[in-house]
Amino acid sequence: KNQVEQSPQSLIILEGKNCTLQCNYTVSPFSNLRWYKQDTGRGPVSLTIMTFSENTKSNGRYTATLDADTKQSSLHITASQLSDSASYICVVSTDALNFGKGTSLLVTP
Amino acid sequence: DTEVTQTPKHLVMGMTNKKSLKCEQHMGHRAMYWYKQKAKKPPELMFVYSYEKLSINESVPSRFSPECPNSSLLNLHLHALQPEDSALYLCASSQASAGTGGSPLHFGNGTRLTVT
Fold this sequence. Notes:
Strand content of chain A: over 45%
Structural class of chain B: mainly beta
Radius of gyration of chain A: 13 Å
Structural class of chain A: mainly beta
Order of helices and strands of chain A: EEEEEEEEEEE
Largest interface: A-B, 23 and 23 residues
Helix content of chain B: under 10%
Distance between the termini of chain B: 30 Å
Largest sheet of chain B: 7 strands, mixed
Oligomer: heterodimer
Helix content of chain A: under 10%
Largest sheet of chain A: 6 strands, mixed
Number of helices of chain B: 0
Shape of chain B: globular
């Protein structure tokens, strides 16, 4: 059973719109949580890292949140662009890396 | 462009062939990884090298044989593969072993392997 669950599995939005991706986890002990972006045919690239004490962190148009009490994280994308089309993977660090299955985002003109 | 370089980008091999995948990084990272990724799935860990020593083998079949000649290079030797081994093979590196702190994984762009 995957202990890092991401939703939705896939998402299609219009260019310029906002969207929010979810990551819920049950793994422990929690060390940190990262969001990675993986473009088609490329390796994943780290977008943000969230530690236990951080609630919100921004990286340009990407804003990640973390609620360590409820073990939930979200990635909000503002004013989406066509280049945001990719798979977004949530990875929770314990004594190992625990990967979610990813959310596939398609931004259309 | 990624700082982790993988070659070749694409590889087609028969089930009786022997081939090798190569990975190189010059960031001074001491942990290097091989991941296997099937379509629409997350990467699955295969091997971890820490300070040039194999520290994790995720019960990978012996037809996959990793090698770390030095701190900058990581190879994956392939022999007698099966069609179901076709996948994207990703190499990654990090300053410290992943899961022990805030070191991100730096991924290469992968080798797309097809076994015929």
